[in-house]
Specification:
By secondary structure, the chain is of the alpha/beta class. It has a single domain, classed as Alpha/Beta hydrolase fold, catalytic domain (Rossmann fold). Helix content is about 40%, strand content about 10%. It has a six-stranded parallel β-sheet with strand order 2-1-3-4-5-6, with helices on both faces. The chain starts with 17 loop residues before the first strand and ends with a helix.
Length: about 270
């Protein structure tokens, strides 16, 4: 077998380290190392100082952001960087905005790129909260149980987290026109299932239909039109699970690792 002259991938570092912030839900304990760990390792293999830490997947923005802040401090200490690039997946994008505005991180953030972040909320949160009390209590208790199992350092608050993700509350906490002064702010949205020609992971089919009835085309968790913020970059033909490398949508060839690398390539082109 002939040897490839240069088998290692090219080193293509960004100016500032990249921190991937995961979103709401139990996906953080589905994959070894957690959600976005594989993507971070893929970026590191290309010379990018990438981190994919964890916060409680079922907690409020303020609590999660306090955890993120500790991880961001560590990333800056390890790399000696004076700024960071944040890529927020799903509600992780809201956490990034909270860090900048409420926790004094704005001057240490070079960029925030959000991926399928519910910048205008998701009707799914309201749907769960509107269920009869017995069903709602069961759902919240289950999420709290998973949250305690997934992340022992902070107690979960699933009810508070759901309430924050409703369209009405998100509109109050995160005005859609509000960006971060001095930072590049941009967004990427996703679409799949009903109203599109993109297949969807079967486990997201029901939520996809519920959300379509309330807010139109979506990725199974977040409405497509409600995920735009800052500069509009692209629309992904991938559901919420496929965007982070899981899911079983038939015919999908979406590569989450290549996708997150493409975001870093955008950052590098901008000198970030």
């Amino acid at each position: 077998m002939e040897l490839v002259p240069a088998p290692q991938p090219p080193l293509t570092p960004t100016r500032y380290p990249v921190v991937l912030l995961h979103g709401f839900g139990a996906l953080a304990n589905v994959l070894q190392g957690g959600v976005l760990h594989r993507e971070a390792m893929y970026l590191r293999a290309r010379g990018i100082h990438a981190y994919a830490p964890h916060a409680n997947p079922y907690d409020t923005v303020a609590v999660r952001s306090a955890t993120w802040a500790e991880h961001l401090e560590r990333a800056m200490e390890e790399t000696g960087a004076d700024k960071l690039n944040l890529i927020g997946f799903s509600s992780g994008g809201l956490d990034a905005r909270w860090l900048a505005r409420e926790m004094g991180w704005a001057d240490r953030i070079a960029s925030v790129v959000t991926v399928s972040t519910p910048h205008r909320g998701t009707a799914l949160a309201q749907f769960v909260l509107d269920r009869p009390e017995r069903l709602r209590s069961w759902a919240v208790a289950f999420m709290d149980f998973v949250g305690r199992a997934a992340y022992e350092l902070e107690p979960p608050d699933s009810f508070g987290a759901l309430r924050e993700l409703t369209p009405e509350t998100v509109a109050d906490l995160f005005p859609p026109e509000e960006t971060i002064p001095g930072a590049w702010c941009a967004s990427i949205v996703g679409r799949a299932g009903k109203g599109t020609d993109v297949s969807i992971t079967p486990s997201l089919a029901l939520t996809n239909r519920i959300l379509y009835a309330a807010q139109g085309v979506n990725d199974g968790i977040v409405p497509t039109d409600g995920a735009w913020w800052g500069e509009r970059l692209e629309t992904l033909d991938a559901d919420h699970a496929r965007q982070i490398g899981i899911g079983l949508s038939i015919g999908s060839s979406f590569d989450s690792r290549a996708f997150f690398l493409s975001i870093c390539e955008r950052l590098r082109e901008r000198g970030l």
